[in-house]
Design brief:
By secondary structure, the protein is mainly alpha-helical. It contains 10 helices and no strands. The chain has a domain at about 85-220: Tetracycline Repressor, domain 2. Helix 9 packs antiparallel against helix 10. The termini are far apart.
Length: about 220
């Protein structure tokens, strides 16, 4: 797989009210570049996930063991479990989450939420290499086609919606349990999901054009 265009410290999610901690990106004004230790951790995590996804493609999800993944990534099984709690976590983990969050928080406050999120999607997906996009699509297919992973896929959708709700609450100064805020966040996540489903079904589509269409539709009030 080609080297990632984003050099990230792959951080666990923290509620924004408790810890506003941004991931770093190479050549990005969003945050300072992470230290050597953090970059090594990021590379190890990325290598484990890369080899796991390759083995899942080659021999099937159920037939692949943690020991095989660890051996392929040249780490010990105990090291695997320091980075991922299970095989399911390897598929669910999204290295781009902290990048999306950092770019979202860097959007000027005068930009409305929908165009702000559209800007983020263009920045993130527009900078992806074909290999990175193929990896994301491969993870998506696993999450929603592998029976053992379907619940993990649903949980990831719920987690993403909660993150978006929390981020909107901070940006707009509204409580995170505001029903209208949750509906708004759900609409944004639905637009993203619709585009990704289209990509899973037809990888040749113009992804950025489809994102632009989806968010323009939201801005119009979704007239049908």
């Amino acid at each position: 797989m080609a080297a990632r265009s984003f050099d990230t410290e792959l951080l666990d999610w923290h509620d924004p009210a408790e810890k506003r901690q941004n991931a770093a990106m190479s050549e990005s004004p969003v945050a300072d570049r992470p230290g050597l230790r953090e970059r090594k951790k990021a590379k190890t995590r990325a290598a484990i996930q890369e080899h796991a996804l390759r083995l899942f493609r080659q021999q099937g999800y159920d037939a692949t063991t943690v020991e095989q993944i660890a051996e392929a990534a040249e780490v010990s099984p105990s090291t695997f479990f320091r980075y991922f709690g299970s095989k399911e976590d390897v598929v669910a983990y999204d290295a781009f989450d902290p990048i999306i969050i950092a770019l979202w928080r860097a959007q000027p406050p005068e930009v409305a939420p929908i165009p702000a999120f559209r800007n983020v999607m263009v920045q993130v997906f527009g900078a992806m290499s074909p290999d990175q996009l193929a990896e994301i699509m491969g993870r998506g297919r696993l999450l929603f086609s592998e029976p053992a992973l379907r619940q993990v896929g649903i949980n990831e959708m719920i987690r993403s919606a909660r993150i978006m709700t929390d981020e909107l609450a901070v940006r707009l100064g509204r409580p995170a349990d505001d029903l209208e805020l949750r509906i708004f966040a759900g609409a944004i996540m639905g637009a993203v999901l619709a585009v990704l489903i289209d990509l899973l079904e037809d990888p040749s589509i113009d992804m950025l054009d489809r994102f632009d269409h989806a968010f323009a539709f939201l801005e119009k009030g979704m007239p049908l």
